[in-house]
Specification:
Blueprint lengths: L1 E12 L2 E12 L3 E5 L6 H8 L7 E6 L2 E2 L5 H7 L1 E3 L12 H9 L7 H6 L2 H20 L15 H13 L5 E5 L7 H16 L4 E5 L3 H7 L2 E6 L2 E6 L1 H5 L2 H8 L1 H5 L9
Parallel strand pairs: 3-8, 3-9, 6-7, 7-8
Antiparallel strand pairs: 1-2, 1-4, 4-5, 9-10
Helix pairs in contact: 3-5, 3-6, 5-6
Protein name: Amino acid/amide ABC transporter ATP-binding protein 1, HAAT family (TC 3.A.1.4.-)
Keywords: ATP-binding, Nucleotide-binding, Transport
Pfam family, one: ABC_tran
Length: 265
Amino acid sequence: MSLLDVQRLTKTFGGLTAVNDVTFQVPERGIISVIGPNGAGKTTFFNLITGIYAPDAGSITLAGQNLVGLRPDQVVAAGISRTFQNIRLFPSMTAEENIMLGRGVRLKGGFWDAVLRTGKFRRDEEEANNTARLMLDFVGLSKWRGELSTNLPYGDQRRLEIARALATTPKLILLDEPAAGMNPRETEDLKALIRAIRDELGVTVVLIEHDMRLVMTLSENITVLNYGSKLSEGLPHQVRNDPAVMEAYLGRGAAAGEHGKEARL
């Protein structure tokens, strides 16, 4: 049974169809990649899943729960968290405070508990603090606990954003170009972190990524979007050798291969 089940999802903006009749299924505890050329509809696809956009047609369910019509915070409460192409940390907050903020969706206290600093508020604050410390340790950022997030190195800011998303205790995490701007060493560390998210935390992972070395060595299955439609889907070696995928990335002439040689991603 699929953890995430997307059926015939469609979204148009004026005369542009950004996502066109896409069906997409993610098994529990899988690591799945969504790839495609720039403008293929990948981030729009994530935005539909997470409630930022409402689909024009199609269905989205997580563990059997319908997500269509839910607000982004309700999608998070249902069990999906995400990161973004551009880092969206709160620069005036410490690393620990950023993660504590992410934990808020799971806390029980209300407005008046915070105003009156009730016992429930104090318990919530302690839980958020403990979660932040655990997540900082998990992603290897304990040393930055009290540092403003804006002062962290770029790669560590990426990891902090993942830690904040994990603080919501998701069933599924969506990572939008997590390796963007990283050097090779940081990318290798990211690969190990993504595997640990699945293997140690039991969280299913779907990532959008342009780093093909990362995609091909990490993914268990790959879906390729092009002009909003699903172009290909399968195991890494199947997608790598799909002529339609090579043409979308490299152009018809390059995909055919110079002097009869096979072009590869």
